């Protein structure tokens, strides 16, 4: 994959003329704004491709004559491949220039979506989703690294929140548009829209992002020195919070369209507006997440998880009373991404101080283990739907959210203890510090 970056040398070279010509007319502040927009757009297009499957589950199932729960496993497969491949490819980046790597990844992403458009069988469709998943995690990790490197420290939380908001905008605009396109011209056309947008984005990234940026100043970043962050219990507990948060949510979210259509009996003509409304809730979730991150956000999360667990447990009632069901779904939408910015700044704050050689890997932790949770949640959701029907997925998700509540309470306690006794909380810390300082 790294070698593939050479295939985009011509794109990078041709963009030099565009960039240098425009450079005379773009101030540093405007350039930063444009770069921020492009980083958010990258998250948007990656999220659009990932989430679009959820909006067209029924259409794909109908065309390929498979069950909706079987198509739901495409979400599981995508997330598993994403979670497994991302740390492997991320550690291979080492000191390669980030822009050529990102362009290569986005080129493969674009090709994968084009294969999805043309897939003649369900097997080919599955392979195309695997291809997209292989590069999506590394692409968002590099995008987040660009955000960290390009943003002034006082604007870092703002830009991180906006990059995450790219995924919410994909839910607000992308998935409803994809669903609408699917209803009028077929699900393949929705992925063609993604493909065309990806081509435009690829050109813009090549034109306006810096070409010489690398993840650190070290000449050689070894695999062992990067993985050392997993010896820190603050990192490990944070990882578990991410996994169980998204497991609980995706038990339900994967089957949102069947919940609307089959569970609540809502007309299919209303599905696109409902997805758009849900998307606005998730956009608000990401933006409010950024505000939480600036005010000790992790300490506020136990109350959020308490409310969410109660709401999901009541979903069977919501399937009988539509207004109750919609209220529960929108509570889930607003809660969905509140953890994002607080936990990302938690990871990056620890890494920047103690493990600077692991910045790209740390930037990918949220996306890696978010997808572990998505894979687990969608798989469990599929089992629950197959054996207990839609009534079972709300209470099933609530159990995982209650576990998340316990984990975040433990993490807050550990962080507080570490702040008070920074040299005694982690038994491996002295060893970790010694190895880090030796780099």
From TrEMBL:
Segments traversing the membrane: 37-58, 70-89, 101-124, 130-150, 157-177, 189-209, 235-253, 259-283, 304-321, 327-348, 360-386, 392-411
Compartments where located: Cell membrane
Membrane topology category: Multi-pass membrane protein
Keywords: Cell membrane, Membrane, Transmembrane, Transmembrane helix, Transport
Gene3D superfamilies linked to this entry: MFS general substrate transporter like domains
InterPro entries documented for this protein: MFS, MFS_dom, MFS_Efflux_Transporters, MFS_trans_sf
Keyword Transmembrane helix: yes
Major facilitator superfamily (MFS) profile domain sequence ranges: 35-421
PANTHER family in the record: CHLORAMPHENICOL EFFLUX PUMP RV0191 (PTHR43124:SF3), PURINE EFFLUX PUMP PBUE (PTHR43124)
The name this protein goes by in its record: MFS transporter
Organism listed in the record: Levilactobacillus spicheri
């Amino acid at each position: 994959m790294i070698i593939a970056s050479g295939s985009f040398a011509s794109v990078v070279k041709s963009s030099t003329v565009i960039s240098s010509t425009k450079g005379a007319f773009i101030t540093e502040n405007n350039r930063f704004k444009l770069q921020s927009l492009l980083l958010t757009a990258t998250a948007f297009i990656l999220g659009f491709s990932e989430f679009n499957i959820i909006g067209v589950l029924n259409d794909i199932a109908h065309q390929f004559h498979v069950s909706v729960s079987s198509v739901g496993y495409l979400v599981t497969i995508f997330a598993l491949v994403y979670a497994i491949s991302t740390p492997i490819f991320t550690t291979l980046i080492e000191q390669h220039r980030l822009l050529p790597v990102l362009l290569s990844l986005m080129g493969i992403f674009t090709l994968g979506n084009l294969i999805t458009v043309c897939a003649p069988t369900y097997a080919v469709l599955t392979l195309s989703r695997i291809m997209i998943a292989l590069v999506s995690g590394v692409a968002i990790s590099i995008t987040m690294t660009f955000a960290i490197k390009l943003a002034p420290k006082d604007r870092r939380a703002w830009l991180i929140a906006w990059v995450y908001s790219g995924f919410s905008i994909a839910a607000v605009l992308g998935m409803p548009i994809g669903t609408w396109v699917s209803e009028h011209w077929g699900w393949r056309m929705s992925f063609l829209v993604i493909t065309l947008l990806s081509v435009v984005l690829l050109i813009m990234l090549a034109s306006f992002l810096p070409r010489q940026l690398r993840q650190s100043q070290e000449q050689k970043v070894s695999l062992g020195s990067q993985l050392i962050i997993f010896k820190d219990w603050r990192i490990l507990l944070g990882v578990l919070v991410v996994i169980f948060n998204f497991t609980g949510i995706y038990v339900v979210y994967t089957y949102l369209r069947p919940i609307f259509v089959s569970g609540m009996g809502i007309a299919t003509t209303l599905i696109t507006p409902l997805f758009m409304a849900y998307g606005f809730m998730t956009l608000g979730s990401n933006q409010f997440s950024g505000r939480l991150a600036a005010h000790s956000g992790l300490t506020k999360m136990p109350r959020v998880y308490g409310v969410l667990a109660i709401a999901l447990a009541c979903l069977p009632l919501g399937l009988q009373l539509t207004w109750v069901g919609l209220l529960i779904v929108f509570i889930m939408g607003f809660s969905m991404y509140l953890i994002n910015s607080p936990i990302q700044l938690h990871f990056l704050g620890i890494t920047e101080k103690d493990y600077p050689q692991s910045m790209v890997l740390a930037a990918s932790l949220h996306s890696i283990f978010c997808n572990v949770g998505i894979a687990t949640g969608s798989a469990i959701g599929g089992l629950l739907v197959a054996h207990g029907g839609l009534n079972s997925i709300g209470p099933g998700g609530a159990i995982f959210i209650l576990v998340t509540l316990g984990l975040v309470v433990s993490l807050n306690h550990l962080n507080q203890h570490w702040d008070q006794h920074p040299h005694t909380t982690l038994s491996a810390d002295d060893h970790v510090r010694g190895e880090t300082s030796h780099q």
